[in-house]
Every structure is written in structure tokens, then in C-alpha cells.
TrEMBL record:
TPR repeats lie at residues 477-510. Residues 999-1276 form the CHAT domain. Pfam families: CHAT. SMART domains: TPR. It comes from the Eukaryota. InterPro entries: CHAT_dom, TPR-like_helical_dom_sf, TPR_rpt. Keywords: TPR repeat. It comes from Rhodofomes roseus. This is CHAT domain-containing protein.
């Protein structure tokens, strides 16, 4: 019911009919009859009469009626008319629906009467007394309409943040509308429209929809459009303001469709938004107050379409519309900041397309102006994005810093769980990535990865169809690729490719971003090819680059970069197939790219570098000196374009490329100037402070070799270069990486540099320098772990707080470094638990814990499956790696602080020769160095200040390679992989190596005998003590049995090393940890055996127990099922001596996964490294391959025996390769019989002597010359 509750009647001049005694009423005339009349109006003046208490009831849908003004001059006099107003119930209803509560109407009066106006105050009220079936009525008082109104009243009281509110309002509005359609009830339509509008407003402002609500919102919004259109059609003729209702509907509906597109990426939503914008342009007058709003919606819709269409017309129309919207908006309008920031965003998009710096400046100005009105995260976000783009154009550090600071502030302002958080995180991740490219701080690229992972995870509820997911996945892939370039970790390389592939899959065909994403995927393939040299990656890269270029129109700002990258891929294919068409096309493409760039464009450096490389490739075939000259010219151009004071990888890369090409031209033309220039550029690349360590190392190595090409004049420079390379080794195998990754990096470098550097130093008579380099370059990883376990007592005395920090960080790094290499992960850095639990992917205790946990989870999963639920368990592998890098950075900072303290300048620095000599408590130590230049033995003796140099003139690198190859063939042919009962004889398959006797004889004649002769060793006399000798071989010699060298064709004395001394091996020049005089008292032996896989293991343990019992020594045996991983680890902390009788496996690909195979799984080397055994003293590893390193890391001693040394054990007996099961008990019994006998406490330092005697006995029993005794070795001190 429409209730008129107040009436005001006004004349322009006093009507002649009225006097002070007149009374005035208003009568409602319907269908010719007076339906009701008001009480008498009160006279306010001669011009105005009003009534505040009377009420006129008008039924919606009741049709036309007349309000007639009547008067009489006396109470009983006749009543006459002063005028009237003709109205309809629908006209009043229309005004109610648009929110009006008052309206004025002209009164039709007589010709001679003054003009009059009737003003009505009214409102819409439910009337519960309507009878069903009457025109314009609804159902009775207890019907659905009343219930629906009650539901609305309840829903309207809910908070807007309540997730059910807008859904409930949508449902109520729909039912109102359905009632209107069923009964023609305009009151129900009156209820439906504002309820629709309220629900849409909540969605737009507070309640981001889920993917399963997409279609619902589509349908309801379309219903709202239809309902409002019907309303306007029905009431527009009665109400000139109905256009306002239509404008409001178009504004809200367009905003909803834009939201749906932005949220779910369905282009149908964007098309519908554009249709509504077109409708608004045609219906809403240009001078209408809502015109700035409609212009903004039009500009936003066109901007969004540009994102996928790439049509310049779209973004130009967007900017035009948004500029006009801003101009039409007053400074006091609360929407001005939003319109400014929309305009700024459009400028950014056009700048990305055209690389127009002016548009970026306009964007920053618009966003900055918006922030003068208010500060919120949206405005800050857009400003940060614009500043980030300006950085990408100009590479100005100030912009990089400003972008990060702004976007960090944005993330702080956005509430947790808010849908905009993911977008803010995405851009912050990109900002971190870009700042890394300037400052080269690894923490920035780590933050980029972590932040982008958060952004992608925040999209989990939206499904893979969300366009925003593709954006963040692409950014994450680029961050992985960047980090892979710096840290050289294969897992990052794998993740980069897989993530960028996923980004391409998520990007719809036709979207403008597809071009860039395919380009970046091509870059990932090209980078992986450089790393692993898989020809298929070249083909994949070319497919992506060609496809990316095919999506770019001529003149697009990204075409030069695409052409250049395609040229690089053609180079790589030329290197594989030598097709001249490929290299000629590469040069042509690079020149085209270069011509399209202005001289100031920072991208010219990379384009010029690729062009230069193409000339070098073509020269390799044509030998045309012009190509080589052009290559030098172009590389010099790239070098000159980088500021001379720039300490960054770009200048480093330019320097090393120029140096390579100059050296090549020197080799071709023999110009001394070229060689000198090459040496200088190698030096620049090698010594750059912020250079990539791997690149610095390669440059240093080539610097040294180039300097040696100068002959005598270059020796001093060569030694300087070699010293730089050696110093870089710990940076390449950085402590911020896991041990497995450090080993991988060191393996990739090869061992030749160390032996080459030592040979060069020895050749110049710098023997002490050679020893220092060997000390730095051997067992780098074990040395790092040893430093982490150093005592900080001296530092604690002068800087206790600093010492405490170092102690904390060192303990954390010691544990973190022993983490396993990250398992195969998805692009979010997570791995399925089932994959993480694979035996060959985890350490021993982790393997056990995973399996236990998996058992619980499997049971729980079964329960969940029974109720239709599913469970996926993931583990985060990104955080531990980043934590380790942060701790390593902190370690470096703390080291710098410690070394700034007077007296601590050399704190934990590489040792000088004097320090090495001071730490030497066993000798002689014989270092055998083998290099192409020369082969030498360097001997350290206690009490001798100088190094004894023994030239090995009859031995060469070729000899070492031949012996190593022959022995490897022997081992393979004999199947000496596992401990076996078969007494295999090693038979040669290499004609140059007749048998193992030949290997041992040649080692004797060419290496060992010259050393013994120089040291004046004499054969052992009966009754005299047994001399000791420690071997420290380098390179390939590390896998050859020097300890067994000799002539075994007969038993003539003095023809075998064992006739002169008991041999030990040491992976370092001095012990990892010096023997403590207060070492824990010997308290027995822990024996671990697995007879299920080694039949004689039980016999072996029984022999040890028998000897121990006879010597009154405690012997704890963990046999078979008792010998599980956790039990062994628990008992190792309580026993100083341990004996393993089980299978041992050397993992050649990942040495830190070498392991003992126990009852319930592997006990890996990583597990032993991470442990800290206070009582650790002696270990007998009666397993296979426990002292066999890997050819990829000969100087790292990456085997189980060295791992036990790093875990704190001082003396180890191990095996270089597989041993026979029947032999092991004999050797073990003899070793323990000698070690445990006597009245004094057992001494592990006598283990080498005990092994010597045990092996001699075994050798004498080896009538068939199986050489089964050869694998047994002593390692340590």
C-alpha cells in the first residue's frame, strides 16, 4: 500500500476564492466516485495550506485516480473545486521503487486562477488486509508474501561479511520476481529490485565468489538486468527519473560481469559487460551524473579485453574513456582515486606493449595523485606495479627498492584471506626477482620463489581456469629459472621447465600473455640445454620461440628479444648439425633485432652478445677471420655498454665472452695483444666481487691457462689465477647448499684444476704454496663440516655474544647441510609424501619416520575414503633450503665480524703452511699429484720445516688413466659389486692391463718405490717396530690401491710396500679433529650384522665376541632384526668402537646417499654426517665399497669411511671395493685379536698396524692369487 501522510498545497498568488473562513480538503476520486477525502488542511499563509495528520491509502495496481482540491466558504455552504491532479498508482509506485519519498505535482486550475502545486510525502508499506484475487493484490495475510518479507527482514540483519547473506538475498529477490511474473504484482517487483541490488553490492564489496558460484551469479545478474528493464518499460512513462534506476542497474551489473571475468576468466562475462556498457552509452545522457561511472566501466572492460586481445585499439579506447571519466569527476568525489588508479593501470598496460616510458610516467603520476586522497592497498599496489615496470625499462636500483618497499607495505595492509592478497603477493614476488637482478642478493630470489608460491597457493580455491593462476605460475617459473642460473641446482632447473610449461597450458589461446609465456618456456629449454646438452631441448626451445614470435605483430616492443632468443637457439642447433643455414639465419635475426632497438635500450647487450656468438660459431666452420674480428668487435661493444664500475654478472658474462673470443683469435693469428687482452678480461670476470661463483671459477681457470700460454712471462700471473680459482672452490660448493648439492657442484668442476694448480706451483718451486692449495681444495665439504664443529672458546673469551651466535648458526648449518637433496617436487615446492618416502630419496631415519607416518596416514585415509573424502599429504621442501641459505649468509657475516677483532684476523680462514705443519701429529704424509704437466710426490714430515719434493718422472697422467681404466674393467668383469661368497678372480678385459698384478706392479715401480727410496725406507726387520705411512693421493690415484703396490710374482723381500710400512689413507692433510688427551674411556664394541643377506656375518660377529670375551671387553651385538636404523643410531652414541658386517653400497651419482643396508632400511652417509657421536673413536666397516670414492669427486673422499671421520671417528677400516664373505671373519678376528690383547686400554691408533698383520696373513693364504685382501684399507690416523 502507498501511504500519503503529508500534503502541502501552495499557490503562486492568493486565490480569490479563499478567505480566512474557508476550509480546504483533498478528495481522492477513482472511477468517477469519491473514494475518500482528507481532513481540512491547515492554513499556513495566504499562499499555503497543509495537512500532516491525514493519510491517503493508494493500492498499487489500482490504476488512474484524481486528487481534487475542494473548498467551501462556510461550514454548511456548497463545496467547489479549486483544481485537481491526475495520477496513477503505478507512477507513485515507480517513485517509491527509486527511493523517492516526496513529489510535487502541478495543479490544474481555472483560467483566471493562480497556478498551484500539490506536494505529497509518501512511502510504500505492506498491507496485510488485501484480499486474494483482487486486481493488484497479493495472497492473504498468512501467504508466501508475508513469509518472504519476514525472510528478508531476517536476512537484512545479517552482517555483510556473513557468507550466507548475499546468497539469501539473491534467493529472496528471485522469489519476489517470480511472484511478480506469476501474478503481475508490482509490489513484488518493488521488493525484488532493491534486494537484487543489495546482494550484488555485497558481492562486489565484500564477498568474492567461489568457482562453484560462477554460474549462479551469472544467472542472477542477468535476472536483475531483465527485471530492471521490465520495470523501466512499465513505469518510464510515469516517471522521468526512471533512467536513474536503469543507470544504477547498468553500473552494478557491468561491475558484476567484470568481477566474474576477473575472477574466472570467462570471456563471455567480459563480452556481456561490454554489451551493457554499450547499452549505457546509448541510454544514459552524456550530461547524466552517472556518465563518469559508465565511462570508467567502459574503460575497465576495454582494458581487460586488451589483456588477451593485444589490440591497440582496445587499450587506446580504455585510456580515452578513463581520461574523460577523471576529467568529469570532481575533486570531492570519493570515487576519484579509483578512477585515477584505473587510468594508471591502463597506461601501464599500454607501456608494456609499446615500451613507452612516457606512459609509465603518466601511470605513476595518476597513481600518486590517487594516493593524495587516501591510502589503501589497491592504490599502493598499482603504484608499486608502475614503479616496477619503470625499473624493467630503466634498470634503476631506486625503482627496484621503491617497488619492493611499496608492495611489502601493500601485503601488510591486505587482510589475511582477502582475494586481493594473491595478486599483491604475485607482484611482490616479481619485485623481489627484479631487485635480485640488480643487487644479486640470493635472499631476494629466494623470497621471490616463496612469495610466488604463496600467491599460487592462495588460488587453490578458484581452480586452474583462473587467469590469475597462469600469471603467478609464469612468474614463479621465471624465478625458478633465475635461481637455477645462479645456484646451478638441477631441481630448480626441473621446476622452471615444468612450471613454465604449466603456465602455457593454463593460458587460453588468443590471450596476449601467451606470447611471453611461450618465450619464457623457450628460454627454460635453452638454459637446460646449456646445462645437460640434450638435443631435444634445442628443438623444444625453437618451437616455443617460433610460436612466440608468431603471436607478435610487427613493431611490437618484444619482437627484438624474441628474434634474439631464436637466434640463440639456431646457434645451438648449428653446433649440433653444422647446418650453415641455421647460423646464417641466426646472424640475420640478431641484426634485425639490433636494428629495432634504440641505442639506450638495455636489451642491446644480450642481443649483441648472441650476435657475437653467432659469428664465432660461423668462424668455427668457415675459418673466415672477418667473422672472428666481428665477434670481438661485438663482444667489446657489449662490454663497453656495461659501466666499468658495475659489479654484476652482466659485466662478468661480457668479460668472459670477450676473453674467450680474444683467446681464440690469438690461437688463430698469434697476436700477443689479443692474448694480453684475453688475460685481462679473464681477470675481470674472475675477480668480480658480485660475480656468479661458478662463472668466476671458470674464468679463473681460463685466466691461468691463458697466462701459461705466455711462457716464462706468464708464470707469476698463472699462479695468481690458480690461487683465485682455489679460493673460489668453497664459494662454488657453498655451505648454503645441501651436501649433496655441494658435491654435485664440485663434481661438475672436475678435479683437474687442483692437480693442475699444484703442478704449476711445484714447477715454480712453490712447494709450500702447493701444500696450502691442496689443503684448501681437498675434501672441501668435509672441511666445511669440520669448521662448523670447531670450538669457539678462544673467541668466546673476548666476544662471548658473537661466539654464542656462531655456535648457534654452526649447529643449525651442520644439521641443515646434511639434509637430503630435495626430492622431485611440484612447482609449489612440495612433494607427495609417498615419493619422499622412497628408499633412494631419503636418509635412513627419515625413511623410517616416513614409513611409520605413512602407515598412520594410510589407515586414516581408509577411514576417510569410506565417507567419500580424499587426502593428499605434501611436505614443504622449499623452506629448509632457503633457511640453510639464510644461515650460511649469517655465518659469512658473523665470520667477517670475528675477523675484524684484533688477533682474530685469520679466524677459520684457510690455513697457512705453518699452521698445517703445526697441526701435523702423524707423518710422513705423502701427497701424490698427477697432472698433464708433471707428476710429483710432496711429503710432509714432523719436525721438518720444508716440503720434500719427489719428482715422479716415470709416471704420467696417461699412466694413471690407463691403470684406472684397467682396474675399473677388472672390477666390473669380476662383478665385485657386493660382498659375496664366490672367490672371484679379477681377470683383465683390457689387453694393456694383464691382471691386477700388473696394476700393483706398475704402481710400485712408478710411484711407491721412488717415494720409499727418497725417504730412505728400509724393509722391516723382525722384532723392529712397524713404520707408518699416510697416503693422500689426488685425482685418479685416489681410486687406485697404492697401499697394495708391489711385485707379487714372487715373495722376494723389499718388492712390496707392505715390506716397508703399514699404510693408511687420509682425505685431508691433517685430521678432521685432533685426538683429545681426555678422550672418553674405551667401553666396548658395538657389532651390527645382517646375516639374512650375508651368511657369514653371524660367524664374523661370533669371532669378535669370542675375542672380546677372552680379553674381558664388552661386546654389544645388534644382529638381524635388532639391527634396525634407530637402534644403531641410539647405540652409536654410547659406544666408541663400532663394527658393521652388512652390505655397503656406494652411490656413484649422489655419493652422500652411499649407505649401510640394515634390517629396516638404509643407514645413509648423510645420517652419519648429521650425527655427533661424543665417544666416536674406531669403526670397522666390514661392508663393501665403504672406502671407495667416486671418479667424479676423487678429491672429496665422498665415501662411508670419510663420512665416519667427519662424524667424529678417528680411525676407520674400510674396503675399496667388494669383499668376499668368507674372508671377512678372518680379517676381523685378526684385527681385534691384536687391538684388544695386552694389558693397556685398546688403542684405535694401532688399527692400521693390526690390519697390516691381518692382511699379510690373508695374503699368504691366497695361493690362487684372488687378491681378496687388496680391498681392505685403513683410513684416518
Amino acid at each position: 500500500m502507498i501511504l500519503v501522510q503529508e500534503i502541502l498545497l501552495r499557490w503562486t498568488s492568493p486565490p480569490r476564492q479563499l478567505s480566512d473562513r474557508s476550509s480546504v480538503v483533498v478528495a481522492l476520486i477513482a472511477e468517477g466516485n469519491e473514494a475518500l477525502r482528507t481532513e481540512a488542511l491547515t492554513r499556513q499563509s495566504t499562499l499555503a495550506w497543509n495537512l500532516k495528520t491525514g493519510i491517503i491509502r493508494i493500492r498499487p495496481g489500482s490504476g488512474a485516480f484524481r486528487l481534487e482540491v475542494k473548498y467551501r466558504t462556510a461550514e454548511t455552504g456548497p463545496e467547489s473545486s479549486l483544481g485537481y491532479v491526475d495520477l496513477t498508482s503505478d507512477e507513485l509506485l515507480a517513485r517509491c521503487l527509486q527511493g523517492d519519498t516526496t513529489a510535487s505535482f502541478d495543479v490544474t486550475t481555472g483560467c483566471d486562477d493562480p497556478k498551484a502545486e500539490l506536494k505529497l510525502d509518501f512511502f510504500l508499506l505492506e498491507d496485510e488486509s488485501f484480499e486474494a484475487g483482487l486486481p493488484g493484490s497479493v495472497l492473504g495475510s498468512n501467504g508466501p508474501a508475508t513469509d518472504l518479507d519476514q525472510e528478508y527482514n531476517v536476512a537484512s540483519r545479517l552482517r555483510d561479511t556473513d557468507p550466507d547473506k548475499w546468497l539469501t538475498l539473491m534467493d529472496i529477490s528471485t522469489r519476489y520476481y517470480e511472484r511478480f511474473r506469476a501474478f503481475g504484482d508490482t509490489l513484488s517487483l518493488a521488493r525484488a529490485l532493491p534486494t537484487f541490488g543489495e546482494a550484488i553490492g555485497i558481492v562486489l564489496d565484500r564477498a568474492p565468489p567461489r568457482s562453484d558460484q560462477h554460474q549462479l551469479l551469472r544467472d542472477k545478474t542477468e535476472l536483475y538486468v531483465t527485471a530492471m528493464t521490465e520495470f523501466v518499460a512499465a513505469f518510464r512513462e510515469y516517471n522521468a527519473d526512471a533512467i536513474n534506476c536503469l543507470s544504477d542497474m547498468l553500473t552494478g551489473s557491468t561491475a558484476m560481469y567484470i568481477l566474474l571475468y576477473d575472477r574466472f576468466g570467462d570471456r563471455g562475462d567480459l563480452s556481456r559487460a561490454i554489451d551493457l556498457c554499450v547499452q549505457a552509452k546509448s541510454i544514459v545522457p552524456e550530461d547524466h551524473p552517472d556518465t563518469p561511472i559508465h565511462l570508467r566501466r567502459w574503460g575497465m572492460a576495454k582494458m581487460l579485453r586488451f589483456r588477451f586481445s593485444g589490440e591497440v585499439e582496445d587499450i587506446n579506447e580504455s585510456i580515452t574513456a578513463l581520461e574523460r571519466s577523471v576529467r568529469l569527476t570532481s575533486e570531492s568525489d570519493i570515487d576519484l582515486p579509483d578512477r585515477l588508479t584505473n587510468l594508471g593501470t591502463s597506461y601501464v598496460l599500454r607501456a608494456e606493449y609499446s615500451r613507452n616510458l612516457k606512459d609509465v610516467s603518466k601511470a605513476i603520476a595518476a597513481h600518486t595523485r590517487a594516493l593524495t586522497f587516501r591510502e589503501d592497498y589497491t592504490l599502493l599496489f598499482n603504484l608499486g606495479t608502475a614503479v616496477l615496470l619503470r625499473f624493467m625499462f630503466q634498470r634503476d636500483l631506486t625503482d627496484a627498492e621503491a617497488a619492493v618497499m611499496t608492495l611489502e607495505r601493500v601485503v601488510d595492509l591486505v587482510p589475511d584471506g582477502h582475494p586481493e592478497l594473491r595478486r599483491c603477493l604475485g607482484n611482490l614476488g616479481v619485485a623481489y626477482h627484479n631487485r635480485f637482478e640488480v643487487l644479486h642478493n640470493i635472499e631476494d630470489i629466494d623470497r621471490a620463489v616463496t612469495t610466488l608460491q604463496r600467491a599460487v597457493r592462495a588460488l587453490d580455491s578458484t581452480g586452474d581456469d583462473a587467469p590469475e593462476r597462469a600469471l603467478h605460475v609464469a612468474s614463479l617459473g621465471n624465478a625458478y629459472l633465475c635461481r637455477a642460473d645462479i645456484l646451478l641446482e638441477d631441481n630448480d632447473m626441473h621446476l622452471a621447465v615444468e612450471t613454465l610449461k604449466r603456465a602455457v597450458e593454463l593460458t587460453p589461446t588468443g590471450l596476449a600473455h601467451l606470447q611471453k609465456r611461450r618465450h619464457n618456456l623457450g628460454r627454460a629449454y635453452a638454459t637446460r640445454y646449456e646445462r645437460h646438452h640434450d638435443p631435444a631441448d634445442v628443438d623444444r626451445a625453437m618451437v616455443e620461440f617460433e610460436a612466440s614470435l608468431g603471436l607478435l605483430p610487427d613493431g611490437h616492443a618484444d619482437r627484438p628479444g624474441g628474434l634474439s632468443m631464436l637466434a640463440g637457439a639456431l646457434q645451438a642447433r648449428f653446433g649440433l648439425k653444422s647446418d650453415m643455414d641455421d647460423i646464417n639465419r641466426a646472424i640475420s635475426l640478431s641484426l634485425s633485432a639490433l636494428n629495432a632497438l634504440n641505442p639506450e635500450d638495455y636489451r642491446r647487450r644480450s642481443v649483441v652478445s648472441i650476435l657475437a656468438a653467432s659469428y664465432v660459431h660461423r668462424f668455427s666452420v668457415t675459418q673466415d677471420p672477418d667473422d672472428l674480428d666481428e665477434a670481438v668487435h661485438r663482444y667489446q661493444e657489449a662490454m663497453d655498454s656495461t659501466p666499468a664500475d658495475a659489479e654484476n654478472p652482466l659485466r662478468q658474462c661480457a668479460a668472459i665472452q670477450l676473453a674467450h673470443t680474444l683467446k681464440r683469435r690469438f690461437d688463430f693469428k698469434n697476436s700477443a695483444d689479443d692474448l694480453d687482452a684475453a688475460i685481462e678480461n679473464y681477470r675481470i670476470a674472475a675477480t668480480m666481487l658480485n660475480g656468479v661463483p661458478w662463472t668466476s671459477f671458470l674464468a679463473a681457470k681460463d685466466w691461468a691457462r691463458a697466462a701459461r700460454s705466455r711462457g716464462e712471462d706468464g708464470h707469476a700471473v698463472a699462479l695468481q689465477a690458480y690461487g683465485t680459482a682455489v679460493e673460489l672452490l668453497p664459494r662454488v660448493g657453498w655451505i648454503g647448499k645441501s651436501i649433496a648439492n655441494r658435491h654435485a657442484q664440485l663434481a661438475a668442476m672436475g678435479s683437474s684444476l687442483t692437480t693442475e694448480a699444484v703442478a704449476a706451483a711445484v714447477a715454480q718451486g712453490e712447494h709450500c704454496l702447493a701444500i696450502e692449495w691442496l689443503d684448501q681444495a681437498r675434501a672441501i665439504v668435509w672441511g666445511q663440516q669440520s669448521k662448523l664443529r670447531s670450538s669457539f672458546d678462544d673467541l668466546r673469551a673476548v666476544a662471548p655474544a658473537l661466539a654464542a651466535k656462531l655456535d648457534r648458526v654452526s649447529r643449525a648449518l651442520d644439521t641443515a647441510g646434511s639434509r637430503d637433496a630435495a626430492p622431485t617436487t611440484d612447482f609449489l615446492g612440495t612433494a607427495r609424501l609417498e615419493e619422499a618416502a622412497e628408499e633412494d630419496r631419503r636418509t635412513a631415519s627419515e625413511w623410517q619416520k616416513w614409513n611409520t607416518l605413512l602407515g598412520h596416514l594410510t589407515s586414516l585415509s581408509d577411514v576417510l575414503d569410506s565417507v567419500g573424502a580424499q587426502m593428499e599429504v605434501v611436505t614443504d621442501t622449499e623452506s629448509p633450503a632457503q633457511d640453510q641459505r639464510r644461515r650460511a649468509e649469517e655465518w659469512d657475516r658473523l665470520m667477517a665480524q670475528a675477523r675484524a677483532i684484533p688477533g682474530f684476523e685469520d679466524f677459520l680462514r684457510p690455513r697457512t703452511f705453518a699452521q698445517i705443519k703445526e697441526a701435523l701429529d702423524r707423518s710422513p704424509v705423502v701427497i701424490v699429484n698427477t697432472d698433464q704437466l708433471q707428476c710429483d710426490a710432496l711429503v710432509l714430515m714432523e719436525g721438518l720445516d720444508d716440503v720434500i719434493h719427489i719428482p715422479l718422472d716415470s709416471f704420467s697422467l696417461d699412466h694413471a688413466q690407463r691403470l684406472h681404466r684397467g682396474l675399473s674393467h677388472l672390477l666390473s668383469a669380476s662383478n665385485l659389486r657386493r660382498r659375496t661368497t664366490r672367490a672371484a678372480k679379477m681377470i683383465s678385459t683390457d689387453s694393456s692391463v694383464a691382471s691386477v698384478e700388473n696394476v700393483l706392479a706398475e704402481l710400485w715401480q712408478r710411484v711407491v718405490k721412488p717415494v720409499l727410496d727418497s725417504l730412505a725406507f728400509s724393509p722391516i726387520s723382525v722384532g723392529n717396530g712397524l713404520p707408518r705411512l699416510w697416503w693422500c693421493p689426488t685425482g685418479l690415484l685416489a681410486s687406485l690401491p697404492l697401499h697394495a703396490a708391489g711385485i707379487y710374482a714372487d715373495d722376494e723381500p723389499g718388492t712390496k710396500l707392505s715390506d716397508f710400512a703399514a699404510s693408511s689413507y687420509t682425505p685431508t692433510l691433517t685430521p678432521f679433529a685432533r685426538r683429545s688427551l681426555s678422550a672418553a674411556k674405551f667401553n666396548g664394541i658395538l657389532c651390527v650384522s645382517q646375516s639374512a643377506t650375508l651368511p657369514n656375518a653371524a660367524v664374523e660377529v661370533a669371532c669378535i665376541q669370542k675375542v672380546a670375551e677372552k680379553c674381558n671387553v664388552n661386546c654389544c651385538a645388534l644382529q638381524d632384526e635388532d639391527g634396525d636404523v634407530q637402534a644403531v643410531l641410539d647405540n652409536l652414541s654410547g659406544y666408541g668402537w663400532v663394527h658393521f658386517a652388512c652390505h655397503g653400497v656406494q652411490d656413484i651419482q649422489e655419493p652422500t646417499k652411499s649407505r649401510f643396508e640394515l634390517h629396516d632400511g638404509p643407514l645413509a652417509l648423510l645420517e652419519l654426517i648429521s650425527a655427533s657421536f661424543e665417544r666416536a673413536d674406531f669403526a670397522f666397516l666390514s661392508a663393501c665399497q665403504t672406502a671407495m670414492g667416486t671418479d667424479m669427486l676423487p678429491d672429496e673422499a665422498a665415501h662411508l669411511a670419510a663420512g665416519m671421520l667427519a662424524a667424529g671417528f678417528k680411525s676407520i677400516i674400510g674396503t675399496m671395493w667388494s669383499i668376499q664373505d668368507e674372508v671377512a671373519p678372518t680379517v676381523a678376528e685378526q684385527v681385534y685379536r691384536r687391538l684388544l690383547s695386552g694389558s693397556v686400554q685398546p688403542d684405535s691408533s694401532q688399527a692400521a698396524v693390526a690390519l697390516h698383520h691381518a692382511v699379510q696373513m690373508l695374503r699368504k693364504q691366497d695361493d690362487t692369487k684372488t687378491f681378496s685382501w687388496v680391498p681392505f684399507v685403513h683410513v684416518g690416523w
